[in-house]
Design brief:
Blueprint: E1 3-6, H1 13-21, E2 27-30, E3 43-46, H2 73-89, E4 93-96, H3 98-106, E5 111-112, H4 121-125, E6 129-133, E7 143-144, E8 151-152, E9 159-165, E10 171-176, E11 182-185, H5 196-204
Parallel strand pairs: 1-2, 1-3, 3-4, 4-11
Antiparallel strand pairs: 5-8, 6-7, 6-9, 9-10, 10-11
Length: 215
């Protein structure tokens, strides 16, 4: 039984459960409930959440007031540590919303700490934001459900952009080059009905850890 490591807020479980239910053979290991032994993990899922705590950012914070007051330092400490662990072992990684921001910062990138026009309820719950794609992109969605107030600024070394917002060029999907599988999306595939192939691609890569090799 593959072990999937994640840190999941209680309010997010209802969104991910339908995808997990299709794969009862995958054990979801929630670090918000109990310690996770990453040496036994076969994949890493990083999901949405509050802003990254300032102490983990790799940039000057000109206006601290734009950062969410309700950051989760314990979660950030765990996620930044397990990203490095997962990468060192070649584990598959799917990063969503804040997860995309975490992997970008963990590998040396920076964030736009406050962006206008991306927080409406319509954008959060409906696939209305148009995308443009790199021609090599495997998972292509014409429109996505992306609502957030932060985004990638400087892209971390090793990542390549797969999709971006057609109206303002905000990065919405990126992949780590020369790595088995590390896909990061700014939108919320767990909230939509068109993203099954993306999750299936990720779940199919959760195999016995002996199948992996370090970078």
């Amino acid at each position: 039984m593959p072990n999937l490591a994640t840190w999941m807020r209680k309010k997010d479980k209802k969104w991910f459960q339908p995808f997990f239910a299709k794969h009862p053979n995958i054990h979801v290991w929630d670090a918000s409930k109990s310690p996770v032994a990453m040496k036994e993990a076969d994949g890493l899922l990083l999901i949405g959440g509050s802003d990254i705590a300032p102490e983990f950012l790799r940039q000057e914070i000109v206006d601290p007031s734009v950062i969410d007051k309700h950051v989760d330092v314990a979660r950030d400490r765990w996620e930044f540590a397990v990203v490095q662990d997962a990468l060192s072992r070649g584990l598959p990684i799917l990063a969503i919303c804040k997860g995309l921001q975490v992997v970008n910062v963990a590998l040396g990138g920076t964030l736009k700490l406050d962006i206008p026009g991306h927080t409406s309820a319509e954008m959060k719950n409906q696939d209305v934001q148009p995308l443009r794609h790199d021609r090599r992109t495997n998972h292509r969605f014409e429109k996505v459900n992306s609502s957030h107030h932060q985004a990638v600024d400087r892209l971390a070394d090793g990542f390549e952009v797969e999709a971006w917002c057609a109206t303002d060029d905000i990065i919405e999907q990126m992949r780590l080059r020369n790595y088995p599988f590390a896909l990061a999306v700014q939108y919320h595939p767990e909230r939509g009905t068109i993203y099954d192939a993306l999750f299936e691609d990720f779940f199919a890569r959760l195999k016995d850890e002996s199948d992996y090799s370090p970078r």
